[in-house]
Amino acid sequence: MLDQIVDSGVLAGVRVVEMGQLIAGPFCGKTLGDFGADVVKIEPPGAGDPLRNWRMVKDGTSVWWQVQSRNKRSIALDLRSPEGQDIARSLIAEADVLIENFRPGTLEGWGMSPEQLHAINPGLVMLRISGYGQTGPYRDLPGFGVIGESMGGLRHLTGEPGRVPVRCGISIGDTLAALHGTIGVLLALYHRKVSGGPGQVIDVALHEAVFNCMESLIPEYSVFGAVRDAAGSALPGIAPSNAYPCTDGWVLVAGNGDSIFKRLMEAIGRGDLGNDAALANNAGRVARVAEIDAAVAAWTQQRPVAEVLQALAAARVPAGKVYTARDIAEDPHYQARDMLLTQTTRDGYEITVPGIVPKLSGTPGGIRSSAPGLGDDTEAVLREIGVSAEQLAALRQKGVVQ
Fold it and tell me: Is there a cis peptide before residue 358, judged by omega within 30 degrees of 0?
């Protein structure tokens, strides 16, 4: 419970049961686990969470798994069997938080509706992540993060004008839903603590999490009837902010502040534009954005990335290289801020993983344990809820646990 918080993590003493698979639910569980929560992950016997086999695999396990499932304990439990459902209810009865990202109605079909679970654990905080939410005409449709990005308005804006919409390269819809879910869990836990009241259900839809980050998209449509379209690397309505070519790559330059714009123009030898009264504010610059972008590009394309960044840093103009994985892994700033951590997997090899975000000064997060093998903690967790050795053996014999 929250009143059991100790120095080992701000969420130490908080018990989380994670039923989710793949990305959205498990990313929330990872975030809570990074800050001390005891996360018990329920996986189906046999193959376990499909993420174990996604993308690049070493020694039979995805290296992505090593990040997504750190600080968790794994039990292999058949939730489709009555015995497995009974065990799950026993675990949930002792939990603070339940995370699930099944299609709406799945838990209800297993006899684990919010009403039924709150009857055995009134303080339970229940996070439900789904494609379209637990209500509404689309609730029963299957939904993945990519569909949430599309319906949330993001995919219409990504890519070059007139060309096929592209993804940002990661499952951003799932991650945004997970972060909104994490916020909801922490809000609900805080409310429970300060009010002494019961737990509650947090309903996160993938498309709504994306939509919540779409800035002025709907207000502009509401007031002006404007439908924002894809704009490549530019930021429509804000100038200058774009990607510019160099002799050996690209740089991103954000010169859209009024004083920053003047410094940028001085740095590229275009003081005439910097001192042009018509360009002193953003509205004026937007009207002449093509001219400004051409001036910046004419300067950058004659220079390597390193020279451009050095000159703009001296002028105090925000600019950055387009980083690859190698750039991140070799960057001293990442290393200085502990954003590249080394952990040893349970298979015995070392792997570099992303550090902990956000950084808390008094109760920082950390990696307490590497990602588990399937069912590594089944026996230990079940004994904590009173399952005897004889009962465990019988459950194994039936294939309920692994």
Answer: yes
Of 174, 203, 293, 377, which residue is the catalytic one? 174
> Has residue 28 got a pLDDT over 60?
yes
pLDDT at 232: 86
- 3 is known as an active-site residue: no
Tens digit of each residue's pLDDT (9 = 90 or more) over 117-130: 999 999 999 999 99
How high is the pLDDT of residue 352?
96
Q: Is the dihedral of CA 13, 355, 187, 153 positive or negative?
A: negative
Look at residue 86 and tell me whether its pLDDT is greater than 90: yes
CA 216 to each of CA 55, 177, 220: distance values in angstroms, whole numbers, following the listed order = 35, 20, 6
CATH of 2-212+339-398, one of 3.40.50.10540, 3.40.50.720, 3.10.20.340, 3.40.50.1820: 3.40.50.10540
For 256, how many CA atoms within 13 A lie in the half-sphere containing its CB? 16
Domain boundaries in the chain?
Answer: 2-212+339-398, 241-323
pTM for this predicted structure: 0.92
Q: Going by CATH, does the domain composed of 241-323 fall within 3.30.1540.10?
A: yes
